[in-house]
Design a protein that fits this description.
- The protein has two helices and five strands.
- By secondary structure, it is of the alpha+beta class.
Length: 87
Amino acid sequence: MGGMSERDVEKDYSVADFAAKLRRLADALETGKPFRIQIAGERFTVPRNARISVEHERSEDEEEVEFQLKWSLADAEEAPEAGTAEV
């Protein structure tokens, strides 16, 4: 995956679509499998050993909660397994 450009996108989803993505993500995490997800037209694989965190931010007029999954690009370059969950 050489030469990947930096990317920072935010995509809004309906409540039903977001809940469905979270359910499929939770299933993949519980089974210890990597999973594929598409966000704003780009599909990629999140490896099984991705670091998971929850972030909370507050300013004077709003609050934000982010569910984050982070991994090294070297981990993501592993070939997806046949059982990879599609999110």
